[in-house]
Protein backbone atom coordinates (compact mmCIF):
# COMPACT_ATOMS: atom_id res chain seq x y z
CA UNK A 1 0.00 0.00 0.00
CA UNK A 2 1.38 3.38 -0.83
CA UNK A 3 0.22 5.00 2.39
CA UNK A 4 2.21 7.23 4.69
CA UNK A 5 3.91 5.17 7.36
CA UNK A 6 1.82 6.79 10.10
CA UNK A 7 -1.56 6.54 8.40
CA UNK A 8 -3.52 3.42 9.31
CA UNK A 9 -6.06 2.47 6.63
CA UNK A 10 -9.46 1.42 7.97
CA UNK A 11 -10.43 -1.74 6.11
CA UNK A 12 -13.52 -3.96 5.94
CA UNK A 13 -13.41 -7.57 4.73
CA UNK A 14 -16.29 -9.14 2.78
CA UNK A 15 -16.52 -12.79 1.87
CA UNK A 16 -19.11 -13.32 -0.89
CA UNK A 17 -20.65 -16.75 -0.30
CA UNK A 18 -21.95 -17.50 -3.77
CA UNK A 19 -24.41 -20.40 -3.78
CA UNK A 20 -23.92 -21.17 -7.48
CA UNK A 21 -20.15 -21.51 -7.01
CA UNK A 22 -19.49 -25.26 -6.90
CA UNK A 23 -15.97 -24.94 -5.51
CA UNK A 24 -17.18 -22.74 -2.67
CA UNK A 25 -15.42 -22.93 0.70
CA UNK A 26 -16.94 -22.98 4.18
CA UNK A 27 -17.92 -19.33 4.54
CA UNK A 28 -17.01 -18.69 8.18
CA UNK A 29 -13.51 -20.17 7.95
CA UNK A 30 -12.89 -18.54 4.57
CA UNK A 31 -13.82 -15.19 6.13
CA UNK A 32 -11.44 -15.62 9.07
CA UNK A 33 -8.64 -16.54 6.68
CA UNK A 34 -9.39 -13.43 4.61
CA UNK A 35 -9.23 -11.30 7.78
CA UNK A 36 -5.86 -12.88 8.63
CA UNK A 37 -4.68 -12.10 5.11
CA UNK A 38 -5.72 -8.48 5.52
CA UNK A 39 -3.88 -8.35 8.83
CA UNK A 40 -0.72 -9.38 6.98
CA UNK A 41 -0.61 -5.93 5.36
CA UNK A 42 1.17 -3.21 7.32
CA UNK A 43 -0.62 0.01 8.27
CA UNK A 44 -4.02 -1.50 7.97
CA UNK A 45 -6.70 -2.02 10.58
CA UNK A 46 -9.56 -4.40 9.95
CA UNK A 47 -12.52 -2.58 11.52
CA UNK A 48 -15.11 -5.16 10.54
CA UNK A 49 -15.91 -8.14 8.37
CA UNK A 50 -18.85 -10.21 7.27
CA UNK A 51 -20.05 -12.97 4.97
CA UNK A 52 -22.40 -11.86 2.19
CA UNK A 53 -24.65 -14.74 1.07
CA UNK A 54 -25.46 -14.49 -2.64
CA UNK A 55 -27.47 -16.80 -4.91
CA UNK A 56 -25.17 -15.72 -7.75
CA UNK A 57 -22.82 -12.86 -8.62
CA UNK A 58 -24.42 -9.83 -10.31
CA UNK A 59 -22.53 -8.91 -13.48
CA UNK A 60 -22.29 -5.15 -12.96
CA UNK A 61 -21.98 -4.72 -9.21
CA UNK A 62 -21.39 -8.20 -7.80
CA UNK A 63 -23.92 -7.64 -4.97
CA UNK A 64 -27.63 -6.83 -5.11
CA UNK A 65 -29.07 -3.31 -4.75
CA UNK A 66 -30.34 -3.73 -1.19
CA UNK A 67 -27.07 -5.25 0.02
CA UNK A 68 -25.06 -2.46 -1.54
CA UNK A 69 -27.17 0.20 0.17
CA UNK A 70 -27.02 -1.61 3.50
CA UNK A 71 -23.23 -1.94 3.33
CA UNK A 72 -22.89 1.69 2.24
CA UNK A 73 -24.37 2.79 5.55
CA UNK A 74 -22.20 0.43 7.57
CA UNK A 75 -19.05 1.59 5.76
CA UNK A 76 -19.88 5.27 6.25
CA UNK A 77 -20.59 4.68 9.94
CA UNK A 78 -17.30 2.80 10.44
CA UNK A 79 -15.35 5.30 8.29
CA UNK A 80 -14.10 2.51 6.03
CA UNK A 81 -11.51 3.54 3.43
CA UNK A 82 -10.70 0.17 1.89
CA UNK A 83 -12.98 -2.80 1.19
CA UNK A 84 -11.35 -6.18 0.66
CA UNK A 85 -13.52 -8.63 -1.25
CA UNK A 86 -12.43 -12.23 -0.72
CA UNK A 87 -12.98 -13.49 -4.24
CA UNK A 88 -12.65 -12.35 -7.83
CA UNK A 89 -14.07 -8.92 -8.69
CA UNK A 90 -14.16 -7.76 -12.30
CA UNK A 91 -12.73 -4.31 -13.14
CA UNK A 92 -16.25 -3.09 -13.93
CA UNK A 93 -17.63 -4.33 -10.61
CA UNK A 94 -14.68 -2.77 -8.86
CA UNK A 95 -15.24 0.65 -10.42
CA UNK A 96 -18.97 0.55 -9.72
CA UNK A 97 -18.61 -0.50 -6.09
CA UNK A 98 -15.85 2.03 -5.43
CA UNK A 99 -18.18 4.76 -6.70
CA UNK A 100 -21.19 3.50 -4.74
CA UNK A 101 -19.32 3.20 -1.47
CA UNK A 102 -16.73 5.92 -1.92
CA UNK A 103 -13.94 3.54 -0.94
CA UNK A 104 -10.96 1.80 -2.53
CA UNK A 105 -11.52 -1.86 -3.29
CA UNK A 106 -9.19 -4.85 -3.66
CA UNK A 107 -10.14 -8.39 -4.57
CA UNK A 108 -8.41 -11.52 -3.24
CA UNK A 109 -5.74 -11.64 -5.93
CA UNK A 110 -5.08 -7.92 -5.53
CA UNK A 111 -4.73 -8.37 -1.77
CA UNK A 112 -2.33 -11.32 -2.05
CA UNK A 113 -0.27 -9.39 -4.62
CA UNK A 114 -0.07 -6.45 -2.19
CA UNK A 115 1.20 -8.74 0.57
CA UNK A 116 3.76 -10.34 -1.68
CA UNK A 117 4.99 -6.99 -2.91
CA UNK A 118 5.35 -5.87 0.71
CA UNK A 119 7.34 -9.02 1.60
CA UNK A 120 9.62 -9.27 -1.41
CA UNK A 121 13.16 -8.78 -0.16
CA UNK A 122 15.51 -10.21 -2.78
CA UNK A 123 15.94 -8.79 -6.24
CA UNK A 124 14.44 -11.92 -7.75
CA UNK A 125 11.47 -11.81 -5.38
CA UNK A 126 10.77 -8.18 -6.25
CA UNK A 127 10.94 -8.94 -9.97
CA UNK A 128 8.68 -11.98 -9.64
CA UNK A 129 6.02 -10.01 -7.78
CA UNK A 130 6.26 -7.20 -10.32
CA UNK A 131 5.72 -9.71 -13.10
CA UNK A 132 2.70 -11.22 -11.34
CA UNK A 133 1.19 -7.78 -10.73
CA UNK A 134 1.65 -6.75 -14.35
CA UNK A 135 0.11 -9.97 -15.65
CA UNK A 136 -2.84 -9.36 -13.34
CA UNK A 137 -3.25 -5.80 -14.60
CA UNK A 138 -3.01 -7.00 -18.15
CA UNK A 139 -5.90 -9.47 -17.82
CA UNK A 140 -7.95 -6.71 -16.25
CA UNK A 141 -7.28 -4.43 -19.20
CA UNK A 142 -8.44 -7.14 -21.54
CA UNK A 143 -11.61 -7.68 -19.61
CA UNK A 144 -12.35 -3.97 -19.38
CA UNK A 145 -11.82 -3.72 -23.09
CA UNK A 146 -14.14 -6.63 -23.88
CA UNK A 147 -16.76 -4.87 -21.83
CA UNK A 148 -16.33 -1.57 -23.67
CA UNK A 149 -16.46 -3.32 -26.98
CA UNK A 150 -19.73 -4.93 -26.08
CA UNK A 151 -21.17 -1.57 -25.04
CA UNK A 152 -20.11 -0.01 -28.31
CA UNK A 153 -21.23 -2.99 -30.32
CA UNK A 154 -24.55 -1.57 -31.48
CA UNK A 155 -23.04 1.73 -32.60
CA UNK A 156 -21.09 0.17 -35.42
CA UNK A 157 -17.72 1.71 -34.50
CA UNK A 158 -14.62 -0.10 -35.47
CA UNK A 159 -11.90 0.76 -33.04
CA UNK A 160 -12.41 4.03 -31.22
CA UNK A 161 -10.31 5.90 -28.70
CA UNK A 162 -11.02 3.53 -25.81
CA UNK A 163 -9.79 0.54 -27.72
CA UNK A 164 -6.66 2.29 -28.98
CA UNK A 165 -5.78 3.39 -25.49
CA UNK A 166 -6.22 -0.07 -24.05
CA UNK A 167 -4.28 -1.64 -26.88
CA UNK A 168 -1.47 0.82 -26.19
CA UNK A 169 -1.58 0.05 -22.47
CA UNK A 170 -1.49 -3.62 -23.20
CA UNK A 171 1.51 -3.24 -25.48
CA UNK A 172 3.29 -1.17 -22.84
CA UNK A 173 2.66 -3.90 -20.27
CA UNK A 174 3.87 -6.56 -22.69
CA UNK A 175 7.09 -4.63 -23.27
CA UNK A 176 7.60 -4.27 -19.55
CA UNK A 177 6.91 -7.97 -19.01
CA UNK A 178 9.57 -8.88 -21.55
CA UNK A 179 12.07 -6.61 -19.79
CA UNK A 180 11.31 -8.09 -16.38
CA UNK A 181 11.47 -11.63 -17.73
CA UNK A 182 14.95 -10.86 -19.05
CA UNK A 183 16.06 -9.47 -15.70
CA UNK A 184 14.68 -12.50 -13.85
CA UNK A 185 16.55 -14.81 -16.22
CA UNK A 186 19.75 -12.93 -15.47
CA UNK A 187 19.26 -13.17 -11.70
CA UNK A 188 18.26 -16.82 -12.01
CA UNK A 189 21.44 -17.55 -13.92
CA UNK A 190 23.61 -16.18 -11.11
CA UNK A 191 21.61 -18.26 -8.68
CA UNK A 192 22.15 -21.40 -10.78
CA UNK A 193 25.88 -20.73 -10.68
CA UNK A 194 25.73 -20.55 -6.89
CA UNK A 195 23.77 -23.75 -6.90
CA UNK A 196 26.35 -25.49 -9.08
CA UNK A 197 28.96 -24.58 -6.48
CA UNK A 198 26.71 -26.00 -3.80
CA UNK A 199 26.05 -29.18 -5.80
CA UNK A 200 29.72 -30.09 -5.37
CA UNK A 201 28.79 -30.80 -1.77
CA UNK A 202 26.84 -34.00 -2.20
CA UNK A 203 24.23 -33.22 0.42
CA UNK A 204 20.67 -34.31 -0.13
CA UNK A 205 18.09 -31.51 -0.17
CA UNK A 206 15.05 -31.50 2.10
CA UNK A 207 12.31 -29.04 1.09
CA UNK A 208 9.78 -27.80 3.64
CA UNK A 209 6.49 -26.94 1.96
CA UNK A 210 3.01 -26.29 3.27
CA UNK A 211 0.12 -23.95 3.84
CA UNK A 212 0.97 -20.44 4.98
CA UNK A 213 1.39 -20.19 8.79
CA UNK A 214 1.81 -23.98 9.19
CA UNK A 215 5.12 -23.50 11.01
CA UNK A 216 7.73 -24.13 8.28
CA UNK A 217 10.03 -21.29 9.33
CA UNK A 218 9.71 -22.16 13.02
CA UNK A 219 10.78 -25.71 12.23
CA UNK A 220 13.52 -24.52 9.89
CA UNK A 221 14.95 -22.23 12.56
CA UNK A 222 14.78 -24.92 15.20
CA UNK A 223 16.57 -27.47 13.05
CA UNK A 224 19.17 -25.23 11.46
CA UNK A 225 19.72 -22.60 14.12
CA UNK A 226 18.80 -19.98 11.51
CA UNK A 227 16.87 -16.83 12.23
CA UNK A 228 14.26 -16.71 9.49
CA UNK A 229 11.24 -14.58 10.33
CA UNK A 230 8.60 -16.85 11.88
CA UNK A 231 5.42 -15.04 12.80
CA UNK A 232 1.74 -15.59 13.30
CA UNK A 233 1.13 -13.83 10.03
CA UNK A 234 0.21 -15.15 6.60
CA UNK A 235 3.04 -15.13 4.06
CA UNK A 236 5.76 -14.28 6.57
CA UNK A 237 8.26 -15.97 4.25
CA UNK A 238 8.57 -15.17 0.58
CA UNK A 239 12.07 -15.96 -0.60
CA UNK A 240 13.43 -19.48 -0.27
CA UNK A 241 16.25 -19.91 2.25
CA UNK A 242 18.65 -22.84 2.39
CA UNK A 243 20.87 -24.02 5.22
CA UNK A 244 23.06 -27.04 5.86
CA UNK A 245 22.17 -29.14 8.90
CA UNK A 246 23.99 -32.10 10.39
CA UNK A 247 21.42 -34.64 11.52
CA UNK A 248 21.97 -36.75 14.63
CA UNK A 249 23.33 -39.74 12.73
CA UNK A 250 25.95 -37.46 11.19
CA UNK A 251 24.24 -37.06 7.84
CA UNK A 252 24.52 -33.58 6.33
CA UNK A 253 21.44 -32.29 4.52
CA UNK A 254 20.42 -28.99 3.00
CA UNK A 255 17.07 -27.74 4.31
CA UNK A 256 15.03 -25.24 2.37
CA UNK A 257 12.28 -23.04 3.75
CA UNK A 258 9.83 -21.65 1.20
CA UNK A 259 6.86 -19.42 0.61
CA UNK A 260 3.62 -20.86 1.99
CA UNK A 261 0.68 -21.87 -0.17
CA UNK A 262 -2.92 -20.74 0.13
CA UNK A 263 -6.25 -21.80 -1.36
CA UNK A 264 -7.02 -20.09 -4.66
CA UNK A 265 -3.42 -18.98 -5.06
CA UNK A 266 -3.52 -16.44 -7.89
CA UNK A 267 -2.36 -18.09 -11.11
CA UNK A 268 -0.27 -15.02 -11.92
CA UNK A 269 1.73 -15.65 -8.75
CA UNK A 270 2.21 -19.34 -9.40
CA UNK A 271 3.46 -18.50 -12.88
CA UNK A 272 5.86 -15.84 -11.65
CA UNK A 273 7.27 -18.02 -8.88
CA UNK A 274 7.31 -21.21 -10.89
CA UNK A 275 11.06 -21.24 -11.50
CA UNK A 276 11.87 -20.75 -7.81
CA UNK A 277 9.30 -23.28 -6.68
CA UNK A 278 10.35 -25.88 -9.21
CA UNK A 279 13.90 -25.58 -8.02
CA UNK A 280 12.74 -26.09 -4.45
CA UNK A 281 10.72 -29.13 -5.45
CA UNK A 282 13.71 -30.71 -7.17
CA UNK A 283 14.61 -31.99 -3.71
CA UNK A 284 15.50 -35.45 -2.47
CA UNK A 285 12.71 -35.29 0.09
CA UNK A 286 9.66 -33.09 0.42
CA UNK A 287 8.30 -32.45 3.89
CA UNK A 288 4.70 -31.28 3.87
CA UNK A 289 4.30 -29.27 7.07
CA UNK A 290 0.69 -29.09 8.29
CA UNK A 291 -0.96 -27.11 11.08
CA UNK A 292 -2.81 -30.10 12.48
CA UNK A 293 -4.58 -27.94 15.09
CA UNK A 294 -6.19 -25.73 12.43
CA UNK A 295 -9.90 -26.31 11.94
CA UNK A 296 -9.32 -26.42 8.18
CA UNK A 297 -6.30 -28.68 8.25
CA UNK A 298 -7.77 -31.23 5.80
CA UNK A 299 -8.84 -28.59 3.29
CA UNK A 300 -5.42 -26.92 3.55
CA UNK A 301 -3.61 -30.22 2.99
CA UNK A 302 -5.73 -30.90 -0.08
CA UNK A 303 -4.94 -27.49 -1.53
CA UNK A 304 -1.22 -27.94 -0.90
CA UNK A 305 -1.23 -31.32 -2.66
CA UNK A 306 -3.08 -29.79 -5.62
CA UNK A 307 -0.58 -26.95 -5.90
CA UNK A 308 2.37 -29.35 -5.63
CA UNK A 309 0.91 -31.41 -8.43
CA UNK A 310 0.27 -28.36 -10.61
CA UNK A 311 3.91 -27.38 -10.14
CA UNK A 312 4.92 -30.76 -11.45
CA UNK A 313 6.38 -32.24 -8.25
CA UNK A 314 7.84 -35.55 -9.32
CA UNK A 315 6.35 -38.82 -8.05
CA UNK A 316 9.93 -40.01 -7.59
CA UNK A 317 10.48 -37.66 -4.67
CA UNK A 318 9.24 -39.11 -1.37
CA UNK A 319 6.88 -36.91 0.67
CA UNK A 320 6.66 -36.98 4.45
CA UNK A 321 3.72 -35.37 6.24
CA UNK A 322 4.57 -33.45 9.35
CA UNK A 323 1.60 -32.87 11.61
CA UNK A 324 2.86 -29.77 13.35
CA UNK A 325 1.49 -27.91 16.38
CA UNK A 326 0.33 -31.08 18.18
CA UNK A 327 1.07 -29.16 21.40
CA UNK A 328 -2.11 -27.20 20.68
CA UNK A 329 -4.23 -30.36 20.69
CA UNK A 330 -5.50 -31.51 24.07
CA UNK A 331 -6.31 -34.85 25.63
CA UNK A 332 -7.96 -37.27 23.25
CA UNK A 333 -7.41 -35.16 20.14
CA UNK A 334 -3.67 -35.08 20.90
CA UNK A 335 -3.49 -38.83 21.48
CA UNK A 336 -5.56 -39.58 18.40
CA UNK A 337 -3.21 -37.56 16.20
CA UNK A 338 -0.10 -39.16 17.69
CA UNK A 339 -1.57 -42.67 17.38
CA UNK A 340 -2.64 -42.09 13.82
CA UNK A 341 0.85 -40.82 12.96
CA UNK A 342 2.47 -43.79 14.70
CA UNK A 343 0.59 -46.18 12.44
CA UNK A 344 1.82 -44.51 9.24
CA UNK A 345 5.56 -44.32 8.54
CA UNK A 346 5.02 -41.32 6.28
CA UNK A 347 3.37 -39.21 8.98
CA UNK A 348 4.99 -37.67 12.05
CA UNK A 349 3.15 -35.74 14.76
CA UNK A 350 5.45 -33.01 16.06
CA UNK A 351 5.66 -29.60 17.63
CA UNK A 352 8.21 -27.23 16.17
CA UNK A 353 7.67 -25.12 19.27
CA UNK A 354 8.23 -27.70 22.04
CA UNK A 355 10.33 -30.17 20.05
CA UNK A 356 7.89 -33.03 20.69
CA UNK A 357 8.19 -35.76 18.04
CA UNK A 358 11.15 -34.19 16.24
CA UNK A 359 13.75 -36.89 17.02
CA UNK A 360 11.53 -39.55 15.44
CA UNK A 361 10.93 -37.38 12.41
CA UNK A 362 14.65 -36.71 11.94
CA UNK A 363 15.45 -40.40 12.27
CA UNK A 364 13.00 -41.09 9.45
CA UNK A 365 14.60 -38.38 7.33
CA UNK A 366 18.04 -39.90 7.88
CA UNK A 367 16.68 -43.35 7.09
CA UNK A 368 15.06 -42.24 3.87
CA UNK A 369 18.05 -40.30 2.65
CA UNK A 370 20.92 -42.45 3.74
CA UNK A 371 19.94 -46.10 3.94
CA UNK A 372 18.65 -45.70 0.42
CA UNK A 373 22.16 -44.87 -0.83
CA UNK A 374 23.82 -47.71 -2.67
CA UNK A 375 27.14 -48.22 -4.39
CA UNK A 376 27.15 -49.22 -8.03
CA UNK A 377 29.69 -49.67 -10.82
CA UNK A 378 28.88 -48.09 -14.16
CA UNK A 379 30.52 -47.98 -17.56
CA UNK A 380 30.03 -44.70 -19.41
CA UNK A 381 31.06 -44.60 -23.10
CA UNK A 382 32.91 -41.50 -24.27
CA UNK A 383 29.93 -40.27 -26.28
CA UNK A 384 27.88 -40.00 -23.07
CA UNK A 385 29.85 -37.09 -21.64
CA UNK A 386 26.66 -35.42 -20.49
CA UNK A 387 25.72 -38.28 -18.19
CA UNK A 388 29.20 -38.36 -16.70
CA UNK A 389 29.10 -34.58 -16.18
CA UNK A 390 25.75 -34.97 -14.41
CA UNK A 391 27.22 -37.55 -12.02
CA UNK A 392 30.13 -35.23 -11.27
CA UNK A 393 27.87 -32.26 -10.81
CA UNK A 394 25.71 -34.15 -8.33
CA UNK A 395 28.86 -35.34 -6.56
CA UNK A 396 27.87 -39.01 -6.86
CA UNK A 397 31.17 -40.44 -8.14
CA UNK A 398 33.42 -42.26 -5.66
CA UNK A 399 36.12 -43.48 -8.06
CA UNK A 400 36.69 -43.12 -11.76
CA UNK A 401 39.15 -44.72 -14.20
CA UNK A 402 39.50 -44.15 -17.91
CA UNK A 403 39.29 -47.24 -20.13
CA UNK A 404 39.60 -47.75 -23.87
CA UNK A 405 36.06 -46.85 -24.87
CA UNK A 406 34.84 -44.90 -21.87
CA UNK A 407 34.95 -44.37 -18.13
CA UNK A 408 34.49 -46.94 -15.39
CA UNK A 409 32.97 -45.19 -12.43
CA UNK A 410 31.78 -46.23 -9.02
CA UNK A 411 28.84 -44.19 -7.81
CA UNK A 412 27.20 -43.96 -4.42
CA UNK A 413 23.66 -42.85 -4.92
CA UNK A 414 20.02 -43.13 -4.00
CA UNK A 415 17.37 -44.96 -5.96
CA UNK A 416 16.08 -41.59 -7.09
CA UNK A 417 19.51 -40.56 -8.45
CA UNK A 418 19.59 -43.83 -10.39
CA UNK A 419 16.16 -43.19 -11.91
CA UNK A 420 17.12 -39.64 -12.89
CA UNK A 421 20.35 -40.94 -14.43
CA UNK A 422 18.41 -43.47 -16.50
CA UNK A 423 16.23 -40.70 -17.90
CA UNK A 424 19.17 -38.55 -19.06
N1 LIG B 1 1.76 -23.81 19.29
C1 LIG B 1 2.57 -23.93 18.25
N2 LIG B 1 2.76 -22.89 17.43
C2 LIG B 1 3.60 -23.04 16.39
C3 LIG B 1 4.26 -24.26 16.12
N3 LIG B 1 5.01 -24.09 15.01
C4 LIG B 1 4.82 -22.81 14.62
N4 LIG B 1 3.97 -22.16 15.43
C5 LIG B 1 3.51 -20.76 15.33
O1 LIG B 1 2.80 -20.61 14.12
C6 LIG B 1 3.02 -19.31 13.56
C7 LIG B 1 3.49 -19.42 12.14
O2 LIG B 1 4.77 -20.00 12.12
P1 LIG B 1 5.76 -19.80 10.89
O3 LIG B 1 6.94 -20.65 11.20
O4 LIG B 1 5.99 -18.37 10.58
O5 LIG B 1 4.91 -20.45 9.72
P2 LIG B 1 5.28 -20.59 8.16
O6 LIG B 1 4.77 -21.90 7.72
O7 LIG B 1 6.74 -20.32 7.96
O8 LIG B 1 4.40 -19.43 7.54
P3 LIG B 1 4.60 -18.61 6.15
O9 LIG B 1 6.04 -18.18 6.06
O10 LIG B 1 3.66 -17.50 6.32
O11 LIG B 1 4.20 -19.54 5.05
C8 LIG B 1 4.02 -18.63 14.51
O12 LIG B 1 3.30 -17.81 15.39
C9 LIG B 1 4.67 -19.79 15.23
O13 LIG B 1 5.12 -19.43 16.52
C10 LIG B 1 4.02 -25.36 17.01
O14 LIG B 1 4.53 -26.47 16.86
N5 LIG B 1 3.16 -25.13 18.04
MG1 LIG C 1 7.68 -18.95 6.87
TrEMBL record:
It is found in: Cytoplasm. Belongs to the TRAFAC class OBG-HflX-like GTPase superfamily. HflX GTPase family. HAMAP family: GTPase_HflX. The gene is hflX. NCBIfam families: GTP_HflX. Pfam families: GTP-bdg_M, GTP-bdg_N, HflX_C, MMR_HSR1. It comes from Puniceibacterium sediminis. Keywords: Cytoplasm, GTP-binding, Magnesium, Metal-binding, Nucleotide-binding. This is GTPase HflX. It comes from the Bacteria.
Amino acid sequence: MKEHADHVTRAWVLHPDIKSDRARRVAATALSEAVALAAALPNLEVVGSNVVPLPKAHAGKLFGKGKIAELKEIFAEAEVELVLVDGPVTPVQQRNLEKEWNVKLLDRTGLILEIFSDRAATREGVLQVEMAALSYQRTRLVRAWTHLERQRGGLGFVGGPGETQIEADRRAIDDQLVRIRRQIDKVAKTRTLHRAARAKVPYPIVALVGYTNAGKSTLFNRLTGADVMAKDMLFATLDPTMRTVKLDGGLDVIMSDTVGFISDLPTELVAAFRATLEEVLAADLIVHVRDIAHENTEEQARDVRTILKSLGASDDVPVLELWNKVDLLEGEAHDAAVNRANRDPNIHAVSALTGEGLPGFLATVTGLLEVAKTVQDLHIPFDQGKRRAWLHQKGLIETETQGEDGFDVTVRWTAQDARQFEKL
